[in-house]
Amino acid sequence: MASFTPLQRLVISVAVLASFVTFLDGTVVTVALPAISRELGGGITTQQWAVDAYLITLSALILLAGSVSDAYGRVLVMRIGLIAFGIASVAVAVAPTPLVLIVARAAQGAAGALLVPSSLALITAVMRGEVQSRAIGVWTAFTTAAQLVGPLLGGLFVDLLSWRFVFLINVLPIGVTLVLLGRLRLPEHERTTQVDWLSGALCAIGLGGVVYALIEQPHQGWGSPVILITAIGGAALLIFFLLRQRRPHPLMPLSLFRVRNFAWGNLSTLFVYAALSLNGFVIGVYLQQGAGLKATEAGLASLPITILMILLSSRVGRLAGKLGPRLFMAAGPLVMAAGALLLLLVSEHFDYWWQVLPAMIVLGIGLSLTVAPLTSAILGSIEESRSGIASAVNNAVSRVAGLLVVAMLSTIVGGTLNLAGFHSATWVTAALFTIGGIVSWIGIRRPVPEAVPEPAEG
């Protein structure tokens, strides 16, 4: 980071570490799922809820957190989020039953929602243009690496200690981030004065209802009154949430979507991150339950992606700043689709080196081409004063994508994550990546910062 000023280097460090916590915890759990279900019981349903309880609150409250960040200050919100995340992590680590674990995971997600939009908003507050693109490239390299190295760290803890220690990995980065945060002095930005708490509740409860129905319907069926009530009720609350956003001072300003790159970039995000979440889940679980690998070996499987992301993301971010993001955002997902299809080589006679490694290398190249330009195109199209909520919307879209695809896992794999189910998930993953690339090519243009019109009073 030699070309950044001291303030910019400090901001990037804080942003990376704060986001590292939430991204790491979102993926570190993947390789721990078989061990969790063995000790606490519940099978694939417990595994789904261990992931989705975190994603429900993270997805639903990240919008509210972005608004709160703009209203009360990014540093304060980030500090509160870090402390709350640490407490919730300890609660997960000592959970005696699946219910306690699920509730604690939901609390983790709520705390994590305070961190990601605040961290990216710090970058957009002090950097614009090509410098911002390079900074987001650095942020992307390390935070995406956190997502990808999570399974490796989780596997080591599961095999050598216990799955419970997986959730204590965050203690060190939380402590370091709190220290750095105390040294950060930023110029004050104009703050909003209203936060729409009711919209936050509508979004959270609505998403919870829909996801509950998707996870439980394979066991109870769509004819179950409980499934119907939660599905229809959740969908209705989400509709009310969207209608409420037409009011003054909305939680999710619909005017943001009048900015071309923001709208199309978020649509691409929906498909790309759904594919990434599905791919990460099935690889982490199948390599243990289907291929018979240890948790550490399953975590090591994705290490090539981590290495490629660290090596390439900042360079791609710099190139995208000069050439524009469209080509990268279109080509990257198509390369990842090819990588996903290579996983069809996995057979009953499992061989990592010939059946999985080639796919990991191709996926790593495609992911490196995609993530930094995608983030930069979306946030670079929105003015700085709205960067908190813009970052929150984009992160909410990516989390909702993962939330829904994991909730639909039983339907995608046919009820069991055996070899046939793994191959079914692979086809769906490749299709989602392909759609994401096509959407980017159609919609993305070289970004020009645009002022987002405020909703009219009345």
UniProtKB/TrEMBL annotation:
The UniProt keyword set, sorted, is:
Membrane, Transmembrane, Transmembrane helix
A single MF term (Gene Ontology): transmembrane transporter activity
Q: Which Pfam families does this chain map to?
A: MFS_1 (PF07690)
TM segment ranges: 12-37, 49-68, 80-104, 110-129, 136-157, 163-183, 195-215, 221-243, 264-286, 298-315, 327-346, 352-379, 400-419, 425-444
Q: Which residues form the Major facilitator superfamily (MFS) profile domain?
A: 11-448
| Membrane topology of the entry | Multi-pass membrane protein
Primary subcellular site in the record, as a coarse category: membrane
> Superkingdom of the source?
Bacteria
Query: InterPro entries, from UniProt?
Result: MFS, MFS_dom, MFS_trans_sf
The name this protein goes by in its record:
Multidrug resistance protein stp
To which species is this protein native? Answer: Microbacterium azadirachtae
